[in-house]
């Protein structure tokens, strides 16, 4: 049988369960053991049927496999290719397997092999191949960066597949298990090159079709607000033709889960490497949209988070020692800690024209309809911004939205349905302070999403 080890991780208490709990340990395997790859690489995107089905229909997923030599990258890529029959696998090694490119591996040919792989991946993105699997060691960030840039340019959602999440990695173990006779000193040098590629935040990402469908619904809801005279006067817009160009939708739609305050690397790294995030990373989750907040500058969706999703929201630990009786910060406070650098944020909050698709994972479940809104169980998804406005950091917007909603919520954070005005049947809205509105549709909209990171 396989030799297995469990690695105890040092994590903030709020990132995962107590360390004494068995689920708080990461089970890892030794490279070269006789364990089957299907037992080793148990990720949501390889074993969870709902996730597998969603990714197959998603349209634009890019798996980026990372790991030191000898940690099972070939096995993982083969598993992914078996799971997703339409996938294409790209690797720098394929350059040396082509008949016209057989040559000695040196710095020059290795550089050419990676350029060859990058060209192949870019062409696959242009053709819309799905999913794309990129398999290289990717030890340093710059080796991954090109593929991250391709994903952003061609609207692919990234799933970073790290073999190190499942393999015990030391120079001694790798030297003993590799089949190429590589020495301990070689692996010591290689492992020192490893650089974590930490996302600037994590969240639940919609695919292109669902984003288009949602934006179409939002436009319908916004048009209903033209029945409110105050809304028209504040925007100086009085018909749908004028209104059409006022807001521009975001290119990338996702509900923010977590990021460290002030982009602190240690906090982000601990959260991202926590057992809880590893367990659910790349998993399909339902996103339930209960309403929409409209200001003069932004439109955002109010997203209900189930219990598992709320547990994935990063809550910054206090510097002082805490006890079991200490109350955790509220979900709103946790989300308000989200902040990314201005340059990175602007890169990923560009706007696009409305484009609609009839293909969507949208569904409604009447028995799960929630008439009242509990703002303590909600997060936000920025949908659109005023055409003339520069993008604001998420921290500022989350604070703004939370403050606006708190004016209408009771002491338990509940906004009752009877507080809403009724327009045209069952369409409802509330006037919020500072020229803002909360729209409550007649039913919740639900979509499937992938829990992953925003990489820049």
UniProtKB/TrEMBL annotation:
Pfam families for the chain: CNPase
- Give the EC number(s) under which this enzyme is classified: 3.1.4.37
Q: Which UniProt keywords apply?
A: Hydrolase, Lipoprotein, Membrane, Methylation, Phosphoprotein, Prenylation, RNA-binding
Q: Record's Gene3D superfamilies?
A: 2',3'-cyclic nucleotide 3'-phosphodiesterase superfamily, P-loop containing nucleotide triphosphate hydrolases
A GO cellular component annotation here is: membrane
Q: Cyclic nucleotide phosphodiesterase catalytic domain location, by residue?
A: 198-310
Whether Secreted counts among this entry's keywords is no
Reaction(s) catalyzed by this protein?
A: a nucleoside 2',3'-cyclic phosphate + H2O = a nucleoside 2'-phosphate + H(+)
Q: What is its main location?
A: other
Entry annotated with the keyword Kinase: no
GO annotation, biological process: cyclic nucleotide catabolic process
Q: Which domain of life is it from?
A: Eukaryota
Q: Which GO terms describe its molecular function?
A: 2',3'-cyclic-nucleotide 3'-phosphodiesterase activity; RNA binding
Cross-referenced InterPro entries: CNPase, CNPase_cat, Cyclic_Pdiesterase, P-loop_NTPase
Topological relation to the membrane, as annotated: Lipid-anchor
Complexes and interactors: Exists as monomers and homodimers.
Family, as annotated = Belongs to the 2H phosphoesterase superfamily. CNPase family.
What the protein does comes down to: Catalyzes the formation of 2'-nucleotide products from 2',3'-cyclic substrates. May participate in RNA metabolism in the myelinating cell, CNP is the third most abundant protein in central nervous system myelin.
- This protein is called 2',3'-cyclic-nucleotide 3'-phosphodiesterase
- Where is the organism placed in the taxonomic lineage, from the top? Eukaryota, Metazoa, Ecdysozoa, Arthropoda, Chelicerata
Gene responsible for this protein: CNP
């Amino acid at each position: 049988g396989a030799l297995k080890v469990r690695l105890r991780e040092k994590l903030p208490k709020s990132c995962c369960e107590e360390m004494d709990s068995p689920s708080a340990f990461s089970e890892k395997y030794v490279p070269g053991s006789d364990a089957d790859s299907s037992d080793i690489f148990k990720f949501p995107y390889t074993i969870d049927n709902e996730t597998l089905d969603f990714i197959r229909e998603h349209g634009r997923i890019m798996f980026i496999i990372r790991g030191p030599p000898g940690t099972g990258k070939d096995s993982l890529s083969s598993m992914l290719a078996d799971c997703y029959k339409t996938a294409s696998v790209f690797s720098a090694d394929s350059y040396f397997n082509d008949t016209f490119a057989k040559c000695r591996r040196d710095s020059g040919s290795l550089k050419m092999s990676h350029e060859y792989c990058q060209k192949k991946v870019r062409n696959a993105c242009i053709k819309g191949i799905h999913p794309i699997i990129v398999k290289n060691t990717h030890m340093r960030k710059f080796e991954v960066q090109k593929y991250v840039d391709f994903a952003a340019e061609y609207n692919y959602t990234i799933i970073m597949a790290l073999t190190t999440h499942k393999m015990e990695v030391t120079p001694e173990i790798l030297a003993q298990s590799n089949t190429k006779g590589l020495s301990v000193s070689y692996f010591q040098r290689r492992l020192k090159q490893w650089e974590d590629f930490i996302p600037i935040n994590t969240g639940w990402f919609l695919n292109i079709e669902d984003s288009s469908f949602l934006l179409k619904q939002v436009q319908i809801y916004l048009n209903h607000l033209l029945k409110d005279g105050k809304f028209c006067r504040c925007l100086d817009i009085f018909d749908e033709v004028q209104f059409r160009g006022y807001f521009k939708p975001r290119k990338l739609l996702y509900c923010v889960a977590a990021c460290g305050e002030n982009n602190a690397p240690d906090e982000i790294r601990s959260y991202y490497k926590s057992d809880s995030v590893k367990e659910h990373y790349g998993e399909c989750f339902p996103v339930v949209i209960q309403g929409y907040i409209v200001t003069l500058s932004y439109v955002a969706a109010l997203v209900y988070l189930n219990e598992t999703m709320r547990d994935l929201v990063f809550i910054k630990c206090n510097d002082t020692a805490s006890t079991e009786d200490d109350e955790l910060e509220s979900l709103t406070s946790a989300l308000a800690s989200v902040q990314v650098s201005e340059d990175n944020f602007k890169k990923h909050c560009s706007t696009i024209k409305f484009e609609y698709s009839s293909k969507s994972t949208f569904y409604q479940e009447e028995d799960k309809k929630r008439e009242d809104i509990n703002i303590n169980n909600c997060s936000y998804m920025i949908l659109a911004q005023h055409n003339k406005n520069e993008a604001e950091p998420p921290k500022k917007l989350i604070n703004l939205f939370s403050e606006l909603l708190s004016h209408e919520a009771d002491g338990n954070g509940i906004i009752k349905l009877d507080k809403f005005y009724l327009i045209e049947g069952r369409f409802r809205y509330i006037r919020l302070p500072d020229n803002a509105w909360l729209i409550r549709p007649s039913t919740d909209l639900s979509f499937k999403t992938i829990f992953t990171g925003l990489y820049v």
